Amino acid sequence: MYSQSDLNSAVKAGAITAAAADALRRHVADQRGAMPADAEHFRLITGFNDIFVSIGVVIMLFAAGAIGEAMIPSLMGPSPLIGLLVAGTAWGLAEVFTRSRRMALPSIILLLAFLGGTALMFVGSFVLLFVDSEPTRWVAGLAIAVTGILTALAAWLHWRRFMVPITIAGGTAAVAATVIGLLMVALVPENSDGQTTLLSLVFVAGLVVFGLAMRWDMSDTARATRRSDVAFWLHLLAAPMLAHPLFTLIGVTEGDAIGIGGALAVLAIYLFFALVALAIDRRALLVSALAYVLVALTTLFNTFGVIELNVALTALVIGSALLTLSAFWTPIRAKVVDMLPGDMTMRLPATA
Q: Three-class SS of residue 225?
């Protein structure tokens, strides 16, 4: 299986003509029976070798971290050498399995390991720097900001070298964590809980990430290039940042304390998420909010006295709804898109 980037690379190298590449894309689209956007395709695994290599990559990264811990053990926190060796190993392996062999799943694992190792290296360095003193809130916030900014810079360098689609989401997450951390230090008093403030900041950050994802999506409405994959991972990052604060403030995480009103509010929000997901042809919002809907439906069934079968009925309702939506995604989406203004539909993926 060849990705769009592989075809573009072959055209650039002169292996095939641009007309032949376009004909191949049309042929594959016709075989699928629908436009690629309708199924939200993205490349993850092309064969069992991807899993085989991924297992080896994880083992190598674990070995690098264990060697770093053995060389410079840290009693106060993670040793910065662990992060350095993990990040260095991930970059070196990416030269082979990402840049040369273009393997999707190993590339995702290596990118996450590189960013995680980079962040761990700076966190460990700050821990060692303040090992003999307790930093103030502002110093701790500054340390978090520096870590986030440098991790985002590392993500940018990784993107320039390897262009793995998930990289943009990783760098965006680092920037979001930096901004949220600094604002929490500035806005929340010393002994205050600050949960509501944190949830509000996460929700606002989620809106910004969602807007960034839509910007990438609108630049490739045909979903034929790497930009679509970048948008996919950004949507996957934005979805929990939007869903968790909303449902937590409603009280879903408190279990039985949600009440009938809260349960109905959860269902209403999920219905709105479904309409947005259909309009933009992305399913991340539906998946991220699924657990909260399960809790809300269970509460409703308990309220109406269906206690013994509440879990089974909840699973039946949710499972049936998701499968029905999946089976009739294209015609339902066409009706939703038809209700939108014309200038908006021009910026969305076409309906099949």
A: coil
